[in-house]
Design brief:
alpha+beta, tt1808, chain A, 5-stranded antiparallel β-sheet, 6-stranded mixed β-sheet, single chain
């Protein structure tokens, strides 16, 4: 085996060890009323629910998943502050549509473009209100690929998916399907590798120092963009 290949396998093995898969449990044949009763009963627990037309999956949130999701949330806060964007952070709000028989709970979600439409809402109703503009998924299993179908049905325009090694940015197309894109539609100078580079620093510095470093990087990108404008 070539040295470069061995190094790649080693990095992936280490990432898998540091980023354990969440524990999961699946129920089939669940109707909407039963899903709602279970969801209400489990409110506040460290669980994520995914409901997709009768399939109800429970996943226990690992500490690594929770930490990475929180850091990505802080990065988004920095981006909106430095770019002076409107923002309504819904965090892990349950996104559900009874008429579509689908629901899930992102690790983070945000209104950006559509913030004015939900600003005065104490409770967002996705049957009448627009879906969040950006959702964040932190998951080392294939489960979040299944969840992408739910996000697409709900109409979420952009989803970030971090699997412990790569962060892929998914953009919803006119055909109702997601395509992986290089740059974030909401933050055009941000790429998946940019975000991963900072996430991997979480074991090397405290979170405030890490977020400060990310803020400095964002300011550099903003200055560079300004300098390139005619």
């Amino acid at each position: 085996m070539k040295a470069s290949t061995m190094a790649t396998v080693s990095r992936r093995t280490q990432a898998a060890a540091e980023f354990p898969q969440d524990q999961r449990f699946l129920l089939r044949g669940v109707d909407w009323a039963t899903y709602r009763k279970i969801s209400d009963a489990l409110a506040g627990r460290h669980l994520r629910l995914t409901f997709d037309q009768g399939r109800l999956e429970f996943s226990k949130v690992s500490s690594v998943r929770g930490r990475c999701g929180a850091l990505l949330g802080r990065f988004i806060d920095v981006l909106t502050e430095e770019l002076n964007l409107l923002v309504f952070g819904c965090r892990d709000m349950t996104c559900e549509r009874e008429d579509l028989d689908r629901a899930l709970e992102p690790d983070q979600c945000y209104y950006l473009t559509h913030e004015p439409l939900v600003r005065n809402k104490e409770r967002v109703d996705l049957t009448t209100d627009p879906p969040p503009d950006l959702a964040v998924e932190v998951d080392s299993s294939r489960n979040s690929y299944t969840r992408l179908g739910v996000y697409a049905a709900l109409g979420v325009p952009e989803v970030w998916r971090f699997d412990g090694e790569h962060l892929r940015i998914h953009q919803l197309g006119a055909d109702g399907q997601y395509a992986v894109v290089e740059h974030s539609p909401q933050f055009p100078f941000v790429t998946g590798p940019d975000l991963v580079r900072f996430l991997h620093l979480r074991t090397q510095m405290d979170e405030n120092s890490l977020v400060k470093s990310f803020r400095e990087w964002v300011r550099e990108q903003v200055r560079a963009q300004g300098a390139s404008q005619p």
